[in-house]
Amino acid sequence: MADVTLTPSGPPETVLDAEPDERLRALSDALALDEGDRRAAIAATVAQWPRFLDGWARLGDAGRDVIEAYSAYRVGYHRGLDRLRANGWRGSGYVRWEHESNRGFLRALAGLQRTAAEIGETDEAERCAHFLRQLDPTWPPAP
Questions:
Q1: Which residues of 95-112 are buried (b: 16+ CB within 10 A; e: fewer)?
Q2: Cβ distance 76 to 108 under 8 Å?
Q3: How many CB atoms lie within 10 A of CB 69?
Q4: What is the C-alpha to C-alpha distance for residues 70 and 85, in angstroms, rounded to an integer?
Q5: What does the pLDDT profile of the chain (143 residues) look like in tens digits?
Q6: Which residues contact 98 (CB under 8 A, 6 or more apart)?
Q7: Residue 88 CB: number of other CB atoms within 10 A?
Q8: What are phi and psi for residue 27, nearest 5 degrees?
Q9: Would you kindly state where each structural domain of the chain is located, as residue ranges?
Q10: Are 76 and 56 in contact (CB under 8 A)?
């Protein structure tokens, strides 16, 4: 029987790599626009960099209806799982809000939870809520 080794610090923690400044600037500029132009500018940012997790989360925030928002959050969530795996995550361990580079994924997952609840997909909403607390036991973050 193999020994089980636990670290004194608890489960492993994954911190996603930071987005390049160019992407962060483009998203920041898009978010600063008035409501009429904001969604299109966020969508253009995501179209230019389709692996930009916070772009997808913010596109969900700007969704014109719950289904559009749900769709953007779901893409951000799945793209985020891919990025997590590429950064060493193996299906368990922390992905904490305190790390700025993790926030796009966590925003997408939280948005997916909210919109799933809105459309009556209760089991998905509950799964997302549970997953958020597993990833960061202090969830939800302070405003």
A1: bbbebebbbbbbbbbbbb
A2: yes
A3: 21
A4: 23
A5: 444 444 556 789 999 999 999 999 999 999 999 999 999 999 999 999 999 999 999 999 999 999 999 999 999 999 999 999 999 999 999 999 999 999 999 999 999 999 999 999 999 999 999 999 999 999 998 77
A6: none
A7: 11
A8: -70, -45
A9: 35-135
A10: yes
